Amino acid sequence: MVEINYKNINSLELEYLSPLELFESFLQKLLQETNFDLNSYLNEIKKNFDKQKNYKISFQTHEEKNSFYDCTEELFQQLLDLNLSLDSSSLVVSSFLEIVDNAFTHNLGRWPTPHYKRVASIFINDISKKKFTIAVGDIGIGFKKTLKLKYPELISERDAIKLAIKPNISSRPTDYKGQKMGGNGLYFLQKNIFNGLSGRLFIRSCNCFCEILSANQIQELESDLPFKYGANVFFELSYA
Amino acid sequence: MPKTIEMIKYGKILFGREEGHSAYSRLAEIIETTPGLDYLYFDFSDVMVLAPSYCDEVFANLHLKYPGKIKIPANIRHAFKVAFETVEETRDIKFDYSPV
Predict the structure, then answer these.
(1) What's the number of domains chain B is made of?
(2) In terms of residue numbers, what domain contains A166?
């Protein structure tokens, strides 16, 4: 694992620190090692996870979004097994898929190199606290560069994150009839988190890490993380 | 007369704009080629997930292209209703909900 020294993040609970460290060590390796052996790395991660007693963790990484869909039924079943209702499980899975779709769609044709065209997800069940965290991460261009083409007034990652959780905000091109579509994945997630599921939502884009407190309020937790690339979305829910 | 569409035939996980666009094309074909069709009525039995991007691509576009030709079950379960409400809010449209 790459050693990363976080300041404020270290004061957060383990479930946020853990996936962020994991994502970043994974993504840094992709960036730094030309002959990176992905399968060995994933096996190593699995071994480390298996040692955890209070956590049940699964990690996935794919180059195509359809590969995430293939695992969706398993995630759905995991949520039902935690006694989440059918509706809540359905909302969590659709929110997760929207975020995965964002990661692929908004980086389309813009990945730093084809080698990095990869999205990772982590599911962490904190058994003792009866909470789970789902996180999705990529090593794409981040929120500000994604949105700046359509919103050139954006000057910071924080502002880009704040903008991205609003409805109809997208870098997606208009369709052939000039109609604007999409841009509601994060809006849908924050709406579900704050209006029904009662969870917490965190977003990192490049060097900026924020907690989304409501539809209109975000709190910047870090603005100087050592990452030039990528974005992570974390959402946490209780199942007690 | 109305025609019921079993959405499970389009998948358990209804997600993605590309998949939604394919479903839209198929459903538009049904609307255009079914003689005497009043409207399509959608049965979501056994569907696990309906994502708003799919809902937008299929149902918002059908609603706009063929006004009055689609009806959504009024008793649709909450998670799916949230997807429809999100689309209504972001596309500024109102779907027709019907008990039958």
Answers:
(1) 1
(2) 8-238
Give the chain B residue nearest A80 (alpha carbons). Answer: B48
Which of A87, A101, A181 comes nearest B79 by C-beta?
A87
| Contact: A69, B16; criterion CB under 8 Å | yes
- Which range marks the domain in which residue B28 is found? 3-98
- Tell me: the pLDDT tens digits for A203-217? 999 989 899 998 888
Q: Best of B12, B13, B63 to disrupt the A interface by mutation (most A CBs within 10 Å)?
A: B13
Q: Which of B12, B15, B86 lies closest to A97 in CB terms?
A: B15
Task: Using the predicted structure, report yes or no on whether residue A112 has a pLDDT greater than 80.
Answer: no
Residues 6+ apart with CB under 8 A from A56: A124, A125, A127
Tell me the whole-structure pTM to 2 decimals. Answer: 0.85
Q: How far away is chain B from the Cα of A167, in angstroms, using its nearest Cα?
A: 6
The CATH number of whichever domain residue A87 belongs to comes to 3.30.565.10
Domain contains A1: no
Cα–Cα distance measured from residue A76 to residue A72, given in angstroms and rounded to the nearest whole number: 6
In SS3 terms, A179-200 reads as: CCCCCCHHHHHHHHHHHHHCCE
